[in-house]
Amino acid sequence: MSSLKSRSRREDKVETVVHKDHKVITPPATLRKRAMTIGGPGGVDTFDMAALERAEAALVELEKEFSGWMVLEIDHLEEARVKLRETPADDEARQILYRAGHDIRGQGKTFGYPLAAEFADGMCDLIEGAEEIDQTVLDLVDGHVDAIRAVVRNDVRNGGDDIARSLVTSLRTARERIIGVDRFVKINVEH
């Protein structure tokens, strides 16, 4: 019990230890108190379950619109692909395509299309890693864009679809021939 009291006192006040050539100042450790309550020190530990339920219901309603949003993102991606094909040496066209892919990479999982996000991720790696945009790169960009379109068109929401997994592997192999295996190292941790 005495160690609990001494720890409690240490959490409440600043400690200063003076040494011969320096001072060590330890601020109060109040994080534990703040983490235990909602509303900060002395706050009331109440959680509004009704608010959580309302938020979850709103998310379910939004899910109905996710497919439409993905279609809009794919339209942007398609426009960017066409622009890059017209002017493959144009850095701005390359950046526009990268940003369109980046948006899908970030939103795909949120919108329920993890495979679209994975294909977009690979396309972004390709665009970023390619020394120049030649016909081989353009063809591989087409493969990534077409894969994203197919995932959304066919409403493939399962990231473990066998055909899609095979396509992921094929595109990764082709991409690695262009940008190198070690250019982008990613570590995926499953919980």
CATH architecture assignment name of the largest domain: Up-down Bundle
**Average pLDDT rating:** 81
User: Percent range for helical residues?
Assistant: 55-70%
Alpha-beta content class: mainly alpha
Instruction: Determine the number of helices (DSSP H or I, runs of at least 4 residues).
Output: 7
Low-confidence sequence ranges: 1-9
Question: How many beta-strand runs?
Answer: 2
The CATH homologous superfamily of the largest domain is called: HPT domain
Looking at the structure, the CATH topology of the largest domain is: Four Helix Bundle (Hemerythrin (Met), subunit A)
Shape: extended
Order of helices and strands: HEEHHHHHH
Task: Please write the CATH class name of the largest domain.
Answer: Mainly Alpha
Gyration radius (Cα, Å) is: 26 Å
Tell me the count of domains.
Answer: 2
The main pleated sheet reads as:
2 strands, antiparallel
The quaternary organization reads as single chain
InterPro entries: HPT_dom_sf
Protein name: Hpt domain-containing protein
Organism: Flaviflagellibacter deserti
